[in-house]
Amino acid sequence: MEFINKRLGRGCTLLSSEGGYKRRDGFTIMCLLMPRQVVELKRFLAEHFPSSFMVVTEANEVVGKGFKRWRNI
Question: What's the distance, Cα to Cα, between the start and end of the chain in Å?
């Protein structure tokens, strides 16, 4: 999270989670990144957390504080 906050300059949301196979407690990090930031995060994870995984998908719209305002809908 520190890498995302300080190096990438982004906020993130932590979600408590439990693994479906080994039932281990953990957390999921959700964040919105620009494409170049995705590359930086991939490199960071590969070096420091090689057993982690990430899902990358495009967001068509983001509404809320710091993004598109609700009243502009």
Answer: 31
> pLDDT tens digits, the chain, 73 residues: what are they?
899 999 999 999 999 999 999 999 999 999 999 999 999 999 999 999 999 999 999 999 999 888 888 887 7
How many other β-carbons are positioned within 10 Å of the β-carbon of residue 32? 13
What pTM did the predictor assign?
A: 0.80
User: What is the chain's length?
Assistant: 73
Pair 68, 62: CB distance under 8 Å: yes
The token pair at 58 is 């495009």
- CA-CA distance, 57 to 29, in Å (whole number)? 14
Q: How many CA atoms lie within 13 A of 51 on its CB side?
A: 0
